[in-house]
Amino acid sequence: MKKHFLFLAFLLLHIPVIISQDLLQSGPMLGYSTMREALLWVQTTETAEVHFEYFDKENPEQRYRTAKITTEAKDGFVARLLADQILPGKTYTYEVFVNGAKISRNYPMEFQSQMLWQWRTDPPEVSFALGSCNFVNEERFDRPGKPYGSEFEIFGSIHQKSPDFMLWLGDNTYLREADWNSRTGFLHRYTHTRSLPELQPLLASTHHYAIWDDHDFGPNNSDGSFWGKETATEIFKLFWGNPNYNVTGQGGITGSFQWADLHFFLLDNRYFRTSNRNFATDRELLGKAQIDWLINAMASSYAPFKFVAIGGQVLSSEADYENYATYPEERQYLLDKIREAKIEGVIFLDGDRHHTGLSRLQESSNVYPFYDLTCSSLTAGAYDDKEEENTYKLEETLVGQHNFGILSVSGPRKDRVLEISIFDKDGKELWSKEIRAKELKYKR
Length: 444
Hints:
Elements (H helix, E strand, L loop, with lengths): L1 H21 L1 E10 L4 E7 L4 E8 L6 E3 L3 E2 L7 E6 L7 E8 L2 E3 L6 E3 L13 E6 L22 H7 L4 E5 L13 H12 L5 H6 L1 E5 L17 H11 L15 E5 L2 E5 L21 H12 L6 E5 L17 H13 L5 E5 L6 E5 L8 E5 L28 E8 L6 E8 L4 E8 L8
Parallel strand pairs: 10-11, 11-12, 14-15, 15-16, 16-18
Antiparallel strand pairs: 1-2, 2-6, 3-4, 3-5, 3-7, 7-8, 7-9, 10-19, 13-14, 17-18, 19-20, 20-21
Helix pairs in contact: 3-5, 6-7
């Protein structure tokens, strides 16, 4: 009888924990980080009360707690909560509680606050990951034939590199015919992709920022005429943790963030886009309002590197597929305005093309070269496209297999150095290139 009683007591003690573990659908995930707050994200399988607790690793006795939120079906059972009692330059351990029970995971759950270095030291070294085109298979709704997604172990390889954050460059989730015509479909597909087991450790320990391209906006090659673009915007903002959106006030997901002395500009290449096949009107990919905001924002920035993230390839001489060369007038307007405003340190970051490569454009000896890093694909079909017509390409940088990038910026404040490294799915380096901030300045 005593043994039965002890066993019953054990069950009563542990059943709430077991049930709570089963209620976790995906995450936790880290969103943006600043010096005083960070976004924490998690998704449950059904309505549940969620909160986070966290503490400075150097002072574990002092614990902090976020607000509590009850997840709801209408929001995909997603909880977005702020850790707003943090101090600069700290590493925090955090815990997730669902219905009052702590969720356990067999990998670290830590986030960091940004360092207060200004007027004190040189800026810290920064390392961030890049990738695009992530397809998670789901046979019931996928097209027949060979599965389009593969080699999901790549997310473990990114996790092993321990970047400060990851910047997702679009097609992060592939909407299919069953998904893009309803809010239900959007929620289902985003949930299915976010729940990939191989992705969870990376989500839990690395801060994440994102832009979109057509496959996480709507149908293939979709544009501003897509009836569901407000739904697309809503769901994107629900599942990602950027610090701001729609900074132009015109709609969409345009935003920016800073990390140390670096500035990132997150552009929207879908919400305002003219159809690829519409030549009966002025053609735009970003739209004048977004470009003018970008020029003004970059002109006000003192960052040695100004990273412009956009879903499609910017610098290619080949007007093919959906790259910016198919909108030549607007692309020229963008590049001209950067030159006219004497903006230095601009590097374009993009995806879409299902291969990786670095392009370099220098119009004359009086200006610094523009670089465009196309980084694709993470898990979706990869192609060995040599871009034979792109005269700006650096041949040695072309990669036609699943890959990701790690970009590191180091050195003293007045001599920052960017190292671009591309890795295969197993974390083996494929190529590396160094660019000094001094190389991206106008001649005085």
